[in-house]
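Put briefly, the fold is written as integer tokens. The lines below illustrate.
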Amino acid sequence: MKNVFNVLIVPVFLLFSFKEGNNLVQNKHSETLTAKSDRIIYLFFKADKDQSGNAKITLQSSKIANGRLKHVPSFERDDVRKGDLVITLTGSDGKEVGKQLVKDPFNPELEVYEKEGISRHKASLQNTEFSARFSYSENIQSVKIEKATDDGVLLLFTQKL
């Protein structure tokens, strides 16, 4: 009886230990896939105004880093004010991959501490730098920047990545 019990129990333990090891291999493989897709793309821009006040934007650099965005920025069309920039990433299929709002980089709002307390003032800049970050996707193909104006939006910049 003892021998029959050992003959039946040993294969059952071997079977379950093999399945558990196989699951560990599958879990490591799925972790590798998710870790590979958890990346962030950083885009660094420089903007200059010419004599007539028109903005010229250049992409200084782009970097891809491991990580995941904790907060995915979103905005409503009602949040867009005159001078704000809307940065849009487009995929290879022509669809929008991501969109982000950058408050007017040429007129940032600064906090000033005075005797009366803290107040806010708008600064006027001729050149500035700004950045945006998005969740990275393999099919990102281009970036587009539009400026909000009284008449709608004005396309300022388009570049393939």
About this structure: The longest strand covers residues 55-66. The radius of gyration is 27 Å.
